[in-house]
Amino acid sequence: MIHMDLKGMGVALVTPFNEDESVDYGALMRLVEYQIQHGVDYLVVLGTTAETPTLTDGEKEEIVSRVVEKVRRRVPVVMGVGGNCTRALVDKLKHGDFKGIDAILSVTPYYNKPSQEGIYRHYRALAEVTPLPLVLYNVPGRTGVNMTAQTTLRIADEFDCVIAVKEASGNITQMDDIIKHKPADFQVISGDDGITFPLIALGAVGVISVIGNAFPHEFGRMVRLALAGDYENARVMHSRFAELFELLIVDGNPAGVKSMLNMMGFIENKLRLPLVPTRIPTYEKIRDVLSKLDTHSCGERSGEV
Question: Would you call 167 helix, strand, or coil by DSSP?
C-alpha cells in the first residue's frame, strides 16, 4: 500500500466570498496562513465546505493554484475531485494538473444512487488511473447512498493507491467494523467534528475538520491528545466545543463556520446560492458560545494571520 500519513487534523477550507460573491482570494490566503501557523496537519481544498458545486472551473483552478503557492509544501494539500460521472472523473485524473497536491479526496457518486457494486466499480476505475493516493469519502447524508463497511474494505484490500476513507456516515458501528478489519496501513478519518473524539478512541487517525477553520490550534490539540491516549484531557476539550458542533450544522455547512469566521474578522458572511447564511438566532447563539470560549477579539484574530 502507498503510504501517506493523514494522521491528525486536516481542515476542509471554506471559500471566502466578497459582497459581490466573487472569490475573496486575499481572505483565503490569510486563512491558509492562519491554519499553518496554528498547527494544522494538512489542508483540504475543493471539499464540501468550500461550496465547490457553486464554483466555476476557472475559480477552482485559481483556488488550488493559490493555495498550493501559499502553502509552499509546509503541509500536505489534499484536493477534492468528486462527481457522479465516472468517465468524466477518469478523464480528469488522467489529464488534470495536480502539481503541489499530495492526495485526492473523492466522494461517493451522488444523486444517481449506485448500488454497492456500482460504488466499487466507480472507485476501481479511479484507482486504475489516479496519479496520487486516493481517499474515499462516504457522506450518505449528502450523496443519498451509504458505502457500506464491506464495500470500503473491498476497495481498501484491492487497491494499494487507496490509502484512507473519510467516514461521515454517522454510523459508529459501521466505522468500527472498518477499523477492525481494514489493512494495516489503511487510515480511517472522521468526517464529523462531533464524533472525532470517540472515533479516535476506536482507532481512527484523526479528522477532516470544519470547526478547525476557526480553531486550528484548539481543536487540533484535542485531536493530538486523543491520539496520544490522553482521553481525559481530550474529553474535556471535546466537551468545550460540544455546543458549537450542533450550531455549525443546524443551518447547514458551511453557513455555521462562515458565521463564526465572520465574527472573528476573517471573512464576509457570504455564501453562494442555493446556500444562504445562518439565521439571525443561530448567528447570535454562535456569538454567545464564542464569548464563553473566551476567544480572541476580531482584531487580534485578524492580526495573527
Answer: strand
Q: How far apart are CA 246 and CA 224, in angstroms?
A: 22
Compute, in degrees rounded to 10, the torsion defined by CA atoms 303, 43, 190, 217: -30
Eight-state DSSP code of residue 47? S
- Residue 173's φ and ψ, nearest 5 degrees, are -60, -45
Range 123-158 burial, b when 16+ CB lie within 10 A, else e: beebbeebebbbbbbbbeeebebbbbbebbbbbbee
* Helix extents (H) in 38-162: 57-71, 86-95, 116-127, 140-143, 149-158
Beta strands, E only, 144-217? 162-167, 187-190, 206-209
Read off φ and ψ for residue 160, nearest 5 degrees: -65, -30
Place of cell 496520487: 132
What nine digits make up the cell of 1?
Answer: 500500500
The answer to whether the CB of 22 falls within 8 A of the CB of 237 is no
Please check whether residue 11 is in contact with residue 222, taking contact to mean a CB–CB distance below 8 angstroms. Answer: no
- CA 94, 98, 99 angle in degrees (round to 5)? 135
Per-residue pLDDT tens listing for the chain (305 residues): 467 899 999 999 999 999 999 999 999 999 999 999 999 999 999 999 999 999 999 999 999 999 999 999 999 999 999 999 999 999 999 999 999 999 999 999 999 999 999 999 999 999 999 999 999 999 999 999 999 999 999 999 999 999 999 999 999 999 999 999 999 999 999 999 999 999 999 999 999 999 999 999 999 999 999 999 999 999 999 999 999 999 999 999 999 999 999 999 999 999 999 999 999 999 999 999 998 886 443 333 443 43
What residues act catalytically? 137, 166
Distances (CA, A) of 108 to 82, 151, 167, 215, 284: 7, 11, 11, 28, 35
CA distances from 6 to 43, 45, 74, 157 (A): 10, 15, 14, 18
